[in-house]
Amino acid sequence: MKWDVYINGYKAFLKLEKSLSGNTVDAYLYDIRNLIRFFNETGVEVQPGQVTIQHLQSFLRWVTEQGMTPRTQSRIVSGLRSFFKYLLLENVVQNDPTELLDAPRIGRKLPVVLTSLEIDTMIGSIDLSRPEGERNKAILETLYGCGLRVTELIGLKISCLYFSEGFIRIIGKGNKERLVPIGRSAKDQITRYKDFVRPSQPVKRGNEDILFLNRRGSKLTRAMIFTMVKEIAEKAGIKKVISPHTFRHSFATHLVEGGADLRAVQEMLGHESITTTEIYTHLDREYLRSTITQFHPRK
């Protein structure tokens, strides 16, 4: 089947030329497989070069009937556009059927942000008498102090710590490197863990340079970090629905609230486009609005 040939080529394109992560590649491929599933279920026999905008509009109506949210539908449209742009590059199609395809309008969802007090409460609730306590505290200090993504955190290497210069070197999305300033709290806690806790635990072969290890001496997984953050939040009495990414949002929001230049925040977060970083200016305005509502005598 020709679809399989083009999907395999598209997968290689996303991995090799776009340098996308495995999770992102899987999400793109899932959207295309959904399109094929729609064709199969509706009895439409069509090859990639024969797909029209009418086919895609019918597909989006079908997606809506499956109960998918506008945000998911918008992501699917983005995936379709990427696939057909690839087919254009490969001369499989002569025209892009997604060119006039409208995505559903969605409002920008503002992320959950923790206050400085909530972050202090979470970090303060960690039991440092437990073997993993110092490590977990170092992890939260690093997430909040440097605004890292989870994958960046679990892949952080000892050789990438430049504490004398006040930076850490991060390998971000698409294997792009950036230097992120590190503050005293995160630096002190990482040093405490690295110098006094980590040397006493076993290290599995191949993980010698990985900073944060589990009790078996291997690199932590994303799921471990999510579970850890959830458990610490519950213990600290935090009622907000949070994830490790919440610390990244909090890092950026608190910088913007403090008057940091948006370009500097973009650089520290590793955002390719400043429009992604601009969401934190919206959060800042929301913070100002809530402050007026709470404290102004004529609210």
Characterize the structure shown.
With 299 residues, the protein is mainly alpha-helical. The protein has 13 helices and three strands. The chain folds into two domains: 2-89, Tyrosine recombinase, N-terminal domain (DNA polymerase, domain 1, Orthogonal Bundle), CATH 1.10.150; 116-295, Orthogonal Bundle (hpI Integrase, Chain A), CATH 1.10.443. The chain has a three-stranded antiparallel sheet with strand order 1-2-3. Helix 1 runs antiparallel to helix 2, helix 6 (133-146) runs antiparallel to helix 8 (184-196) and helix 6 packs across helix 10 (244-257). It is elongated, with a radius of gyration of 23 Å.
Average pLDDT level:
86
Number of strands: 3
Overall number of structural domains: 2
Structure classification: mainly alpha
Count of alpha/pi helices: 13
What would CATH call the architecture of the largest domain? Orthogonal Bundle
Q: For the largest beta sheet, what order do the strands appear in spatially? A: 1-2-3
Outline the low-pLDDT stretches. Answer: none
Shape: elongated
Full CATH superfamily name of the largest domain: Intergrase catalytic core
Distance between the termini: 64 Å
* CATH class call of the largest domain: Mainly Alpha
CATH topology of the largest domain: hpI Integrase, Chain A
Radius of gyration: 23 Å
The oligomerization state is single chain
